[in-house]
Fold:
Amino acid sequence: MKSFACGDVVPGCTASWVSSTDDEILVLVAQHASAAHGIETVTPELVESITDRIVSV
Structure:
């Protein structure tokens, strides 16, 4: 299993996810980024920031 906490990239955000793969987490985080943070374009740099902080649980 994999885990990611949005607060690791966006200070103060309490959203977090646990999923089977990095790709599943990236889909969920992209949806959250749009709905909660108004981010419409997920840049390669943002993807790298997220994947660098995904941990195995």
User: Anything to note?
Assistant: The chain has a mean pLDDT of 97. DSSP finds two helices and three strands in the chain. The CA atoms of residues 5 and 16 lie 4 Å apart.
